[in-house]
Structure formats: C-alpha cells, structure tokens
Amino acid sequence: MSSDYGFDRFHLGEERASRITLQSSTPKYSMKVNIDRCIGCMSCEVSCKKEHNLPVGPRRMRVIQVGPYFVKKGQLKTVYLPMNCFHCDDAACVKACPTGSMQKRADGIVFNDPNTCIGCKSCIHACPFGSPQFNDATGKVTKCDYCRHRVDEGLLPACVTLCSTDALWFGNINRISTIDREKTARKMTEHFFGFVTPNTTMGTSNTRDTDNPIKVG
Questions:
Q1: C-alpha distance across the termini of the chain, in Å
Q2: Phi/psi of residue 104, each to 5°?
Q3: Which residue, 146, 149, 151, is CA-closest to 168?
Q4: Cys staple from 169: which of 5, 32, 181, 208, with CB 3.0 to 4.6 Å?
Q5: Residue pLDDT, tens place only, 34-69
Q6: Which residues have CB under 8 Å from 74's CB, separation 6+?
Q7: Using only C-alpha atoms, what is the Rg of the chain?
C-alpha cells in the first residue's frame, strides 16, 4: 500500500512522483478544496452527517455560499466554499480543552474524545473557524476529524468519497503543495507566454483513490 495516497487520479508518473518536495518527510494529512469545481451540491455535508449520525444542527462539514454578486457586464456569480476543520498545527481547541478530550495525532488529525468531553464549549469559543460544533443530542462537542476511523482503514473521508465534482482532495500535505505549485506554474505560463500547458497532474478522472489506500505511520 502507498503512504502517499489521495492523488493517484492526477496520474503522477514514477518520474514525476520522484520529484515531489520532501515526499516522505511527514505523515501529516491535509484537505484541499478546489472552489473552481465546487457547485454547491452539498454532497459533502450530507455524507458527513450520515457517516457520523449527526442530528439537525451540528455540521462537521459546512458549505458556505458567497453571493450571488454582480461581476463584469452585469453577470451574477456565486461561489461555494466547503469549510471543514483545518487541523491546525498549534490548535487553539486543543489548548483550550480542560479535560484533554481534544487531541492532536502524530499525522496531524485533531479529534475530540467523546468519553472525556464534558461539553463545556471551551473549544468552540477558542476556534477562530467555527469547526467544533455542539451536539444537543449528546451534550458533547463534535468536529471534523477527517473520518479518522476511515483513514485508519485506508479509506478516504466520507466527504471526499462522495464529492460529485472531485472538488475535495485529501492526502499527504507535501503532495498537496506540489499539486498547487504546478497548477500555479501552468497559470503563469499561460499568462506570460500565451499558450495552454498540458494538464498532466490535474486529471478529471472519477477514479477513487481507495484503489491505492493509505498506510498510516
């Protein structure tokens, strides 16, 4: 199994994969949102609530709608941005938790242990992004943990699996930064030289990355 999962659908060849910056320097995971692909279908929200059996109210994943607003020539535009936990390195929620129920794993995943959570909401007040949510049904806090039970089994988070446009990418953070850098390089090439470069990393295949599941650690 590959420890660098989440980007096989972008068809990185063996030669290109060998040039990924600091390929194995960290096992940390991250999620990238391509807002150009997000159509606001809310599949990520629905799949997340179903995966974690959440009642009406708390949402680990929330799609924020910006707009509609006017752009050039009187056209309207609406942008959708899926917002989940950012799993900060210096997580404010972890530092604010008085019982230690909010924890951060070695692979970067921040999660809440419901067995020790007392529902004091300290983490909710501490987080600047509104990631922790209070669950009235349990009296405890719930938050995005990248579906760690799925990650530990070599599967993608539920929201990524059911994203209808492949707008959500999940994997090793260094592979994500490599994809971003190459995307920026293509845009700069098109802007300064006036031609479109072959898109060799950002494929449109719907092949799911569970064909090459992860191995944590």
A1: 12
A2: -125, 125
A3: 146
A4: 32
A5: 888 999 999 999 999 999 999 999 999 999 999 898
A6: none
A7: 19
> Are 63 and 42 contacting, i.e. CB atoms less than 8 angstroms apart?
yes
Instruction: Give the H/E segment covering residue 173.
Output: helix 173-193
Q: Going by DSSP bridges, is the β-strand pair 168-172/29-33 parallel, antiparallel, or unpaired?
A: antiparallel
Q: Say what the pLDDT of residue 183 is.
A: 80
Tokens of 40: 């606001």
Residue 61: both structure tokens together: 């994943």
Cα-Cα-Cα-Cα dihedral of 199, 200, 206, 209, to 10°? -140
Question: CA of 203: how far to CAs of 23, 54, 177, in Å?
Answer: 20, 33, 16
State the Cα–Cα distance between residues 194 and 191, nearest whole angstrom.
6
The amino acid sitting at 109 is I
Compute the distance between CA of residue 177 and CA of residue 183 in angstroms, rounded to an integer: 10
CA atoms of 94 and 126, how far apart (whole Å): 9
pLDDT of residue 182: 80
